[in-house]
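INTERNAL AUDIT FORM
Audit reference: QA-55
Scope: verify that the stored structure record matches its stored sequence.
Auditor: D.O.
Record contents follow.
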Amino acid sequence: MKRISIKNEEQMRVMAEGGAKLGQIRKLTAAAVRPGMTTREIDRIAQKLIDESGGGASFKRVAGYHHATCLNVNEVVVHGIPGDRKVEKGDKLAIDVGLYYKGWHTDAAVTIIVGEGEAKLKKFLETGRRALKAAIAQAKPGKRIFDISEAMQKVIEKAGYSPVKALTGHGVGRELHEEPAIPCFAVGNRENSPKIVPGMVLAIEVMYNEGESEVVYQNDDGWTIGTADGKISGLFEETVAIYKDGPKVLTEAKNE
């Protein structure tokens, strides 16, 4: 197993500063979305906010990726490339964005309804929010990564949905993607799962589908991953620092 990076107090303080900025970027980008906008236009809004924050776009530091965000409409699960696709009233849109600030990455995502949405979709998204909250509550010293995964799986499956099994959350810090991997469902034996200790910083990511858990690559672009059955997918993510007294969400925006 690769080594898990442990941050000191000063490093976590800088990550908290960047995380607060990212929370605002995510909030303001989501608030700016209107029916008829292209995903490219939404990406430009996020990039402008990133520029104004004094940081840089984490995702542009990933080899081969050239956008500030991943924008995932309806059946797209993750890595949706901003482009000419328009979002329409009632669409599901997941906004995934990362900020590189003073040498440290933070990562966050939210799923919204464009304009007004049906009760069925609202229930689906509320499940994701509850799953993320339950997962974060397990991110404290003495627990294991298994506990985080199990918590989100229970909420998702109880509501009648499916956790994505092919993708995971992750550690975050100097690199955008670090150890440990954080699956959206309980994998293997709890005893073999990494222990949660102070100094860890985790990008806890809930990825789940309305239908089956299977996902496929779309569009032959090497990035876009969608549901195999064409049903909608949800994504919620926060960067969470682990302290002796428990987890602290670094990417939570004020009044979000």
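Auditor finding: record pair retrieved intact. The CA atoms of residues 11 and 104 lie 8 Å apart.
Action required: none
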